[in-house]
Each structure stands twice: as structure tokens, then as C-alpha cells.
Design brief:
1101 residues, single chain, two-stranded antiparallel sheet, disordered N terminus, 47 helices, mainly alpha, disordered C terminus
């Protein structure tokens, strides 16, 4: 678990446990990149062989293989090869249309894939908002406060973000581990949203007195409901792949029942309707959308009932006589035929209000509105059986019968209603089948539809005033109109987007199916009446004759009527696209809302439109920052993944060189949510989601994530690495490979080492990514050795920041992770580990560097203590105080002089060289910042806190390059004439502007002399003391050095040895002043005089 911390970095600083038993282990060789005696002091992947950086990956210059060595020359250098002048490279880039960074070669994919500005400014803007404007790491690093030691193996508990974030992560994890199907995951996402929305509404009920808070909670709940609706639509469209969804089989017995009916030639009209839906793709999609809208309406009623029950009330309860018009009957019996200024009905049969165009008494009108309001909602939800039960319960069995003419579950049951019909007993459909046999296949359905149509039209003609919302007549018209497919009767009752969409699609679906059924065969009722005889017998003719004509046509199976079909969309997709369809105008008007627009795009089967709308909703415009809510980013990312999982969008090819705008848009959505998780502290979400990014985007994102965690506590980074390693190893999809976490760790640490942006402290902390597991021990100690050499070279220009970074690397990073075991082990324990020779060599070198930098730190602390003790008092110290300080001084003097005089460092490094080996060339290339004067205390403190290395101003860079070049030429001219000794200085461009790249080469056939000459020249240049120069270039602060390890190490030793000798001299002088014997440290004079020993010779003393 996370450790409670009293200050930003956590824990009280404490002294590090010293490395004990430091008997050196002899080097057995170096296996760093480059086998020759060559130094390449390059601080940025734009120099020399390139490694991964966010900018280069975004430009498409990503490693040819995602798992190549970071040192592989996978893309071009800003300076060309060491033998090629920068001007040639630049000219070549211009000639080929390149940018001077990629060598002008390589593929040129769509700019949306590899546009670094869009990548950083748009997607990564939240994270980069905390960066130093000069390009350094997040400013939070200055307050990092990492304790001086961490508990080995301590791992923090990663954070999951909001409750919805955690719940969605759990569902996604189950899907990725094949613990649930994609359809189950989509339903689970919808359930999460619904539950959370209900929790918010319950909580909001207690916030009524705080209007702002109440409104915010209500809006959030509404947004979650809208999101749940979109998830449910995805499930209806793509979750259930069975073509029999959502209409089922149309009768009891399911597939077997249908097969038996077909064998006997006695299929019911419901079975044939269900088969039409299953066999026609367009009709099936429309049915799925209708089923979705009905499911939403039903769930809304269920939630309402649950809330009512929770509050102790009962939702929509009706009395047994509430549907009986008793109050109107009483007034009619009393001869009261008016109520206010309205004439009441004079008859009480069910058709009287519509036939007479008169209202009921006001109380009965209110009852009717309430009953019909409930019936409308039940029909709207496809719950015809519940609607019939309600009618029977409240005293209107006649209405229950009228609703059931198309079957107990309606004429075309969908979703839950269809499942209930399939599960019913077979005898339920026997009467239906018998009626079809006697009267004809289509006749019962056509007659009932036509009767419902005329009942709807009659009810809609009533003029009674409404109490709240639609009137009773409008609601009754909508109920019967929905059963008849009459859009004109249904629309007046629609108050919401979902209602209007359902009315359009349900009427279109039912009418289309009826039209197909009527084409399949018609019948005629026995004893049918002649229309002419009926017309002659009807008094008044006119409209009544038209009604009778339509009913007699239905008696012959004629349905749907042309006037009903004329009002409907030509195709169900016209509901969302036909600008001329006036009835669908409310639907199109609602498409401005993000969720509505997404739902329409899903229904229309336009995945690219879905992705583009999500991108426009979640991601910012060019150069802007994200304005969407975290909830929107969560939804968009998981919806993008669900589109793949359900097959709406095929799985990507995962090829880095194959651009797919749809897949790229989905990847951007996932990455945007990852960046939000990173910036909000929900770090546990990152590795799980990153599995679904392509390698280039995944590694880019993780490099930013690692940079963020590098500036935080060690346990947090360890937990993030463990989580990533776990997910990358378990996930079987995409292009993720087991062990990829370690690959990314290598790339991150190498990129950080090569970059000047982070400063020495940040580079040291970044090495933690190789220190978490034992499997990365070889990489960890090799990287540490390389970094320690470079920090040693930096001691010349900036001793304090370089030494502090080295000590942090050794004691805060390596000692807190897996490398600790080899750093504190005794020689016997190391032998028992049986390390490979190359690993053992790096371990030995790191242990030696630990002695160097521990001594450096001890000397700095001694300086502070000594200055504080003698300030203003000279040698007049108290007896006990003086004795203690003298003892500390002489002990440190002994330690330092022993280290120098024993010559263990030189023997380990130089004694390992083969004097007979010949290399074609010996080269050292250093990437460094030129310092004309030492840094101020403030600048040194800032660098120690992790800020970037200083770089040259644009105007100063050419002059610095000239001075360094002239100095090197003068020094080489004054040299003893070693064959082939030469140097080259180049200036960085773009990201590398303000840096100098210095290459020093010699003929490798000269053997050790070539190494000595290159190392000596480099050391003198870095210290600003090149011989024979007319003007000094000042100090060079080495940021990066690559090449032959022996060459780099010897250059570092030529800087270190005089420095250590002078420290010993200062210690001896202080010891004598404090009363020590003049014989104490007498060998220091020889050490100071000797400086750095020549190669192959014993050190002085």
C-alpha cells in the first residue's frame, strides 16, 4: 500500500546504508554499444545512432522494430554520420524534401498519424501544461523530495480514479481476460451508468436546498442516463448476433415450434412476422432500434417504480373502479348534462366520447388521463400484456380486449416481449391459428389494425381540455394509433426525442411487415358483406361509408391502407437523414446533442462518423486543450474499444506503416483518456488501456507516463511498472508482447540519458525503470555504468549537480531496487551469483563509481561541517569538538588517499585493455553545453533539483562552435603528431539547438596511444585547458558521451584524479591545522604532483 508521507517526496530523509565489503571485482570487459576505443558524447538521439523519443516517434521515425535495441540506427541523425559534415546532411535533407532530422527518407504516412504538434498540443496538452517552458520536465520535479533511501520492494497502491472509472476498468479487465463476452461487457457498462445515475438522484434529493449542487448532480445523472442509452443501443445492434433477435420465433416452442408448424403448413401470422424480421437485414436493424427504444422506456418505468418503492410509495396504482365512469353516470341519472360551459356525453358506452365529441365529467376525465397516460407508457415500452392487465384491474375489460386483438404481446413483439411469447404455453396460440384457418391468414390482423386506426382517429377528435400534458383523447389516440401504425395519431402524444423516434420507427416497422405479410397470401372472412349494399343502408353516407369500406377491405385482408403508408418514411433511415420529412424534424433537431448524434450514426451503420463525432466531442481543436469532461473521455475510450470488441469496427492490422483513419481516431480516443488518467492520478488505468494502442502510440504514451512518475516517489513508479508488466504479459490481443514493459523501460531510460531536457538529477531518477525486477539487472547495471561515466565527466563544469545526481542514482534508485543485491554483496556472494562476464564487469564498475561518488559526497559534507566549525574561530575549537573534527578529517583523508594510491580504478579500467588489439579508428564524441563562466549558486541549485542542462542561445551557438573548433585544431597541431588525430564540432538543430557535438578521432592502429591521445584531448577540452590554444572555450558540461567505454572512462579519470588529489591536499591541510601530525597524509604531495597516471603505469605513491 501507499506509504503515508509528511512531505512531498515522502518519508523523513535518512542516511543511506553504505555499500559494505567493497573489495573490487576485476573487470572482464565491456559490452556497451560500440566495441572500439571510441567515445560518442551525444546527449540527444538526434546525434549519432538514434533512440526513442516522443518527437521522433510522432514524426514516424519510430524504431524499425518496436523491440530493437535503443542504440540501433533506426532513423537518421541531425548531424549525419561522424564522417559526414552537417552541411552535407542538411543539403541532402533539403534535396529530398526532408526536414533535416530524418535524413529525408522513410515512408510518409497520413500526417494525422505522425504529427508531433497535434500529438503533443492536442492529446498531451494536460500533461505538458506543467512542464517548464524551456522544455524541461514537469515543474513538480523541483519538489520531488524523494527520500534518501526507500524500502526495498515497497510498491504503492495505484489509484483508479472516479467510481465509474474503477467500475469500467473492472469490466474491461474481465473482457480482456475472457471472463465475459463483448456483449456482456457492453451491458455491464450500461448497468454501471444506470446505477451511478440512480445513486446521484438519490443523493440529489437531499440537496434540494442547495440549488447549484442539486442541479449539478441532476445533470450528471442525466448525462449518465444518456450514456447508458448509447451503450444499450450498441448492445441491441451488435451485442446479440443471432438473427432471431429481437423478434424471437413468434410462438411457443422456439425453433422447434416453428419447424413443426412449417411441417404441418400451419404457421401463425406471428411466426411469419418474426421470420421476416430475421431474414431481412434492413428490417432486422429497424426492429433492433425499436427494441432498444422500448427497452429504454421500460427501464425508465422500472427505475421510477424502484424509487417510489424506496420512498414507501407505490407507483401507478389504480383502484378497481377507477376506470368506471361512475361520477358521469350519477350526473346523467340526475339529468345534469352540462359541466361548466361544456356539454357532457349522454351515453356511457366506450365509444360515446369519440362518437359524440363530448367529454366525461371532470373527475372521470382526470381518471382517464391518468389511466391512458399509463397505458401510453406501457405501449411505448412494448408491454402490451401489462397494459391489458391494467385495464382489467381498473374496471375496463373492454379496453383490455381491444388492446389484445393483435395478440397477448402485441402484433409484433420485440425484445423482452418476444422472449415472453416464445416461452409461453402452446395453447396460447391455438385460438390465433384457428382464427387464421377459418377467416384467412391476414384477415384477423387486418381487421384489428383497421379498427384500431378508426378508434385512434375518433379519440383524437375529442376536444376535452387536458389537466397536465396531453389530453385523454390525445393519449387514447396514441395508444390505438401505435397499434394501427398510424403515425398521425401517435405523434401528438410524443414529448421526447425517444418518443418521436419510436413512433416513426415502430409505425414504419409494423406497416412494412404487414405489407410483406399481405403479399404472402390473403384470405376473406366467411359471409362477407357487399360494400354497395352497406352504402345503400347507411343513412348520411359520406365519412361513415369510407370507414365501412376500409373495414370491409380489411375483412378481405387488405392492409395496410395507402393513407397510412403515405405518412411514413420511405426507409427507416430517413428518420435521421431526410431533411424534407417534417414528422422527423424533432428527431433531427435533437442530433446536436453528442449522445444523440452518436446514436444516429450507430443506427445508420457509419462507424467512421461515430469515431469522428467522438473525436470532435472529446479532443480539442488544433492547438487547443481538451474541454470535455472526464466522464466523456472515459466513455469515448471504452466505446472505441467496444466498437472493436463487438465487431462494429474490425480489429486493426496493428501495422505501424498502414494508416487507417478509423483505427487512428479510435486510438486517439483511448490515448486521450490515458493522458487524463495520468494527469489526474488514476495511474492504475494506464497499462490496461495502453494494451489497446499500437506500439508507436503506446510507447509514446508510456514515455510521457514514465517521465511523470520519474518525478514522483519510487514506490509509485514500481507499482506502475509491475502493473504494466502484468497486463502486457497477460494480454493476448493487439501487438503487445510479453516483456514489453522492460523494452519500454530501456527506451525511456536511454532517451532520458540522451536528452538534455531533464538535467542530471532527472536522468538519475529515470534509471529506476530498470531497477524494479531482477530480469532487468543486466540492463540496469550497464545503464548505471554508462550514466556514471557521463556524470563523472560533468564534474569538471558542475561538480555539485553531477555528484548529487550520481549519489541519487546509487542510493535512491539502485539501492531501492533489484540491483541492491549486487551492490552490497561481498566478493564471495558475487562469485556465488555466477553472473555473466559482461554483467559482472558492469557491477564491478558501478561499485567502483560508488566509492568515487561516496567519497565526493563525504568530502562535500566535510567541507560544510569544517566551515561551520571554524567560521569566526579559526583553530580555537573546544577540545572535544576539535578532536572529533580532526578524527573525521583524518579518516576521510585516509579513505581518499588509499583509493588513489592503491590504483584500483586505473587497474580495473586500463588493465583490462588488450595492448595487441587494433581498431580502425578510436573516437570519442561528446555532446555538451558550453559554459563560459561557472554557474551561479541559484542555477546550480536548480540543476540539482532536476531542471534542464543549460544550452547556448541561438545567437551564441555559432561563435561557441567556432571557438571550440579553433581550440581543438590548435591543440591537435601542438600534439606530438599522433597519426590520424582529428576533431569535428557540429551545432544542433531544432530540438538539439544550443548543444555542441564534439568528435575526437585517432587512428586505431596506434593502439593504447590512440586511446590515451583521444581521452587526454577530450579531458583537456572539457576542463577548458587545451594546450596551445589562443582563447579558451570555457568549460564544457558533458551531457552525453558514447563510444568505447575504456576511452570514456579514461577521460573521466583524467578529470577525477587531479580533483581527488586536491581534495586530499585540502583534507591534509585541515587535519594539520586541527592538530594532527604533519606525517598524516604525507603521500598527498606525491599524488598532487602526479595527477592522473599515464596509461599502463602504476600511480604515483
Amino acid at each position: 500500500g501507499a506509504v503515508a508521507r509528511d512531505h512531498p517526496g515522502g518519508g523523513e530523509p535518512q542516511d543511506a546504508e553504505p555499500f559494505d565489503q567493497r573489495t573490487p571485482v576485476p573487470f572482464s570487459g565491456f559490452d556497451d554499444a560500440g566495441g572500439s576505443a571510441e567515445m560518442d558524447m551525444t546527449s540527444n538521439p538526434l546525434f549519432g545512432d538514434a533512440a526513442f523519443t516522443p518527437a521522433s516517434a510522432a514524426r514516424g521515425e519510430y524504431l524499425n522494430s518496436a523491440y530493437e535495441s535503443p542504440g540501433a540506427a533506426a532513423f537518421g541523425s541531425a548531424f549525419g554520420s561522424p564522417a559526414q559534415p552537417w552541411s552535407d546532411t542538411q543539403a541532402g535533407a533539403q534535396a529530398t524534401g526532408g526536414n533535416g532530422l530524418d535524413g529525408g527518407g522513410g515512408f510518409d504516412p497520413d500526417p494525422r498519424l505522425f504529427d508531433v504538434e497535434a500529438e503533443v498540443q492536442q492529446i498531451l496538452a494536460p500533461l505538458y501544461s506543467s512542464r517548464d517552458p524551456t522544455g524541461g520536465p514537469p515543474t513538480a520535479y523541483a519538489a520531488m523530495g524523494v527520500p534518501e533511501t526507500e524500502q526495498v520492494g515497497e510498491v504503492a497502491e495505484l489509484r483508479l480514479g472516479s467510481p465509474e472509472d474503477a467500475a469500467f476498468s473492472e469490466v474491461l479487465g474481465a473482457l480482456m481476460q475472457q471472463q465475459c463476452s463483448a456483449a456482456e461487457a457492453v451491458r455491464s457498462y450500461a448497468d454501471v451508468c444506470r446505477r451511478r445515475a440512480q445513486e446521484l438522484r438519490t443523493a440529489a434529493a437531499g440537496q434540494m436546498q442547495r440549488a447549484t449542487r442539486y442541479m449539478a448532480m441532476r445533470d450528471e445523472a442525466n448525462a449518465l442516463d444518456d450514456e447508458a442509452a448509447t451503450w444499450l443501443l450498441l448492445w441491441h445492434l451488435a451485442g446479440d448476433k443471432d438473427a432471431r433477435f429481437p423478434a424471437g420465433w413468434g410462438a411457443a416452442g422456439g425453433a422447434q415450434g416453428l419447424e413443426d408448424a412449417r411441417t404441418t403448413g400451419r404457421t401463425t401470422i406471428h411466426q411469419r412476422a418474426a421470420s421476416i424480421i430475421a431474414e431481412d437485414e434492413k428490417i432486422n436493424k429497424a426492429a433492433r432500434v425499436v427494441a432498444w427504444l422500448e427497452a429504454l422506456a421500460g427501464e425508465a418505468m422500472d427505475v421510477e417504480a424502484a424509487l417510489m418503492a424506496a420512498s414507501g410509495a407505490t407507483a401507478a396504482r389504480f383502484g378497481a373502479t377507477e376506470g368506471v365512469w361512475a361520477e358521469t353516470r350519477i350526473r346523467l341519472d340526475a339529468g345534469v348534462l352540462r359541466h361548466g360551459d361544456q356539454q357532457l356525453v349522454s351515453e356511457l358506452d366506450p365509444d360515446a366520447p369519440g362518437r359524440q365529441r363530448r367529454p366525461l365529467y371532470s373527475e372521470n376525465t382526470a381518471d382517464e388521463e391518468r389511466i391512458l397516460g399509463r397505458l401510453w407508457r406501457l405501449v411505448r415500452a412494448g408491454r402490451i400484456a401489462e397494459a391489458q392487465a391494467l385495464c382489467r384491474d381498473c374496471g375496463q375489460p373492454w379496453r383490455a380486449a381491444s388492446l389484445g386483438g393483435g395478440g397477448q404481446w402485441g402484433p409484433t413483439p420485440l425484445g423482452a416481449a418476444a422472449a415472453a411469447a416464445d416461452a409461453a404455453d402452446a395453447h396460447v396460440f391455438e385460438d390465433e391459428l384457428a382464427d387464421q384457418v377459418v377467416r384467412g391468414d391476414m384477415v384477423p390482423r387486418a381487421l384489428w389494425r383497421c379498427a384500431a386506426l378508426h378508434a385512434a382517429e375518433a379519440a383524437g377528435a375529442t376536444t376535452e381540455p387536458a389537466r397536465q400534458g396531453p389530453s385523454a383523447g390525445t393519449l387514447e389516440a396514441a395508444v390505438y394509433g401505435a397499434l394501427a401504425g398510424s403515425l398521425a395519431s401517435v405523434l401528438p402524444a410524443c414529448q421526447r426525442w425517444e418518443d418521436t423516434t419510436w413512433a416513426l420507427l415502430r409505425c414504419w416497422l409494423d406497416t412494412t411487415i404487414d405489407h410483406r405479410l399481405s403479399q404472402g397470401g390473403q384470405g376473406e372472412a366467411e359471409g362477407g358483406l357487399d360494400v354497395d349494399l352497406v352504402a345503400a343502408a347507411v343513412p348520411g353516407g359520406g365519412g361513415k361509408i369510407n370507414i365501412i369500406q376500409e373495414l370491409l377491405g380489411a375483412q378481405r385482408g387488405t392492409w395496410p391502407l395507402p393513407r397510412v403508408m403515405a405518412r411514413l418514411p420511405r426507409n427507416f433511415t430517413d428518420v435521421f437523414t431526410d431533411e424534407t420529412a417534417a414528422d422527423a424534424a424533432p428527431v433531427r433537431a435533437a442530433l446536436g446533442a453528442p449522445q444523440r448524434a452518436l446514436q444516429a450514426a450507430l443506427v445508420l451503420g457509419r462507424p467512421q462518423d461515430v469515431a469522428d463525432r467522438l473525436v470532435a466531442w472529446v479532443l480539442p481543436a488544433e492547438g487547443g486543450r481538451p474541454t470535455s469532461t472526464p466522464a466523456a473521455m472515459r466513455f469515448a475510450a471504452h466505446f472505441a474499444l467496444a466498437l472493436r470488441a463487438t465487431g462494429v469496427v474490425p480489429e486493426p492490422s496493428w501495422s505501424e506503416d498502414q494508416y487507417d483513419p478509423l483505427q487512428e481516431a479510435l486510438g486517439e480516443l483511448v490515448q486521450a483518456y490515458i493522458v487524463h488518467a495520468m494527469s489526474s492520478g488514476a495511474t492504475s488505468l494506464v497499462p490496461q488501456l495502453a494494451c489497446h494502442l499500437r506500439a508507436g502510440r503506446r510507447h509514446l504514451t508510456y514515455s510521457i507516463f514514465a517521465e511523470q512518475l520519474t518525478a514522483g516517489p519510487f514506490p509509485d513508479a514500481a507499482a506502475a511498472f509491475a502493473e504494466a508488466d502484468s497486463w502486457f504479459s497477460r494480454w493476448q490481443g493487439g501487438d503487445v508482447l510479453p516483456g514489453e514493459a522492460l523494452v519500454i523501460a530501456n527506451q525511456v531510460t536511454e532517451a532520458t540519458r540522451r536528452s538534455p531536457a531533464g538535467g542530471p538529477a532527472f536522468r538519475a531518477q529515470a534509471a529506476r525503470w530498470l531497477a524494479f525486477v531482477e530480469e532487468s539487472l543486466p540492463e540496469a547495471v550497464a545503464h548505471a555504468a554508462l550514466l556514471l561515466r557521463e556524470l563523472a565527466l560533468g564534474l569538471a563544469a558542475a561538480p555539485d549537480p553531477s555528484a548529487a545526481a550520481a549519489w541519487a542514482l546509487l542510493h535512491q534508485v539502485l539501492a531501492a531496487g533489484a540491483p541492491r543485491q549486487v551492490l552490497v554483496a561481498s566478493p564471495e556472494q558475487l562469485d556465488a551469483l555466477n553472473l555473466p562476464p559482461s554483467v559482472a564487469a558492469h557491477v564491478a564498475e558501478v561499485r567502483l563509481w560508488a566509492e568515487v561518488f561516496d567519497n565526493e559526497r563525504a568530502f562535500q559534507q566535510w567541507q560544510q561541517q569544517h566551515a561551520a566549525a571554524v567560521e569566526g574561530r579559526g583553530s580555537a575549537l573546544a577540545e572535544g569538538e576539535g578532536a572529533a573534527l580532526r578524527a573525521a578529517t583524518t579518516q576521510l583523508l585516509f579513505t581518499i588517499t588509499s583509493f588513489l594510491s592503491e590504483g584500483r580504478f586505473e587497474a580495473a579500467v586500463l588493465g583490462n585493455q588488450d595492448p595487441e588489439a587494433e581498431e580502425p579508428a578510436v573516437m570519442l564524441t561528446a555532446m555538451a553545453a558550453a559554459l563560459v563562466a561557472p554557474q551561479s549558486d541559484a542555477e546550480v541549485a536548480a540543476l540539482a533539483a532536476g531542471e534542464a542542462y543549460p544550452v547556448l542561445a541561438t545567437d551564441d551557438a555559432p561563435e561557441a562552435r567556432r571557438v571550440v573548433s579553433d581550440s581543438l585544431r590548435a591543440a591537435i597541431a601542438a600534439s606530438p603528431g599522433l597519426p590520424g588525430l582529428e576533431a569535428e564540432v557540429r551545432s544542433g538543430q531544432e530540438e538539439a539547438a544550443g548543444l555542441l557535438s564534439v568528435s575526437i578521432r585517432a587512428d586505431g592502429r596506434a593502439g593504447q596511444a590512440a586511446v590515451d591521445a583521444v581521452a587526454a584531448t577530450a579531458a583537456a577540452l572539457i576542463k577548458g585547458s587545451l594546450p596551445g590554444t589562443a582563447e579558451s572555450a570555457g568549460l564544457l558540461w558533458v551531457v552525453n558521451a558514447t563510444g568505447s567505454p575504456a576511452c570514456v572512462t579514461q577521460a573521466a579519470w583524467r578529470i577525477l584524479a587531479p580533483r581527488i588529489a586536491l581534495q586530499a591536499a585540502e583534507l591534509r591541510q585541515a587535519a594539520v591545522a586541527l592538530g594532527a601530525s604533519r606525517e598524516e597524509g604525507s603521500e598527498v604531495a606525491l599524488l598532487v604532483a602526479g595527477g592522473a597516471p599515464p596509461a599502463g603505469e602504476p600511480p604515483p605513491g
